[in-house]
Design brief:
alpha+beta; Elongation Factor Tu (Ef-tu), domain 3; binds zinc ion
């Protein structure tokens, strides 16, 4: 199974076939030959979407989940589905794109924290289900003042305003990536096997299996929501429509 979201996170729909069928929690679950659904992880919620069976029957996904490195869509249907059946799959794009913006914003902000927080080490991020608030958790020491937290977000906004290119490259091992990106590398230095690095050109390079936008400008500006000893929460400023 090919996970297309890793190479093209902008693909909203696809025609493919059913590759595997299981039963998960008494529901039918299918995996597709070419998968565009993000199964969740790294603080980013799983995608939702629909599949179209036999070109007419439209079924919403109940859950999208990772099972032994294979993405399965569990479906609320009693319809007969067989391996090899043609499927048209569509992700809920507005929801996914909001997560891509939030997730990429987290890379920018963690790049700031790496520079501004002494002995910085990341704990993790969380993106709200609503796709507008991101919480970055970390260890390290800083003054823990409102003005500092605000200045972190201001610096992130400066990077966003420069509309920097974001690229994805795969390296055969972590040391090749660490050597290439040098001081902008942020992430573990011990890791076995192939590694996928997300680079915000000249600013940040980090191993990640998530979905990202192509330029920092696509994120839109950020606003500080809250902060604590080990966390900064920010929201994306959406255009009022
Ligand atoms: Zn990422």
């Amino acid at each position: 199974m090919a996970n297309i979201y890793l190479t093209n996170s902008y693909l909203k729909d696809i025609n493919t076939i059913v590759k595997d069928i299981r039963e998960i929690k008494k529901k039918i679950a299918i995996s597709l030959e070419e998968n565009i659904f993000y199964p969740g992880g790294g603080g980013q919620p799983a995608d939702k979407g629909i599949i179209k069976l036999k070109s007419i029957l439209e079924i919403p996904t109940l859950r999208v989940l990772n099972l032994n490195d294979k993405v399965f869509l569990s479906l609320p249907t009693s319809e007969q589905i067989s391996i090899g059946d043609p499927i048209h799959a569509e992700i809920d794009w507005n929801r996914r794109y909001a997560y891509m913006q939030c997730h990429t914003a987290a890379h920018v902000v963690m790049g700031v924290l790496k520079r501004e927080v002494q002995n910085y080490s990341p704990i993790g991020i969380n993106i709200s289900e609503t796709g507008d608030i991101v919480t970055a958790k970390f260890n390290g020491s800083w003054r823990r003042q409102m003005e500092d937290a605000k200045s972190f977000i201001e610096r992130a906004n400066e990077i966003i305003g420069r509309d920097i290119n974001i690229t994805i490259d795969t390296y055969k091992d972590i040391s090749a990536a660490v050597n290439k990106y040098n001081e902008i590398y942020r992430g573990p230095r011990e890791f076995s096997g192939e590694v996928r690095i997300i680079t915000i050109n000249g600013w940040d390079a980090n191993p990640c299996g998530g979905t990202h936008v192509k330029h920092t400008g696509e994120i839109g500006y950020l606003r500080l929501v809250n902060f604590g000893i080990q966390e900064i929460a920010f929201s994306l400023i959406r255009d009022e429509k």
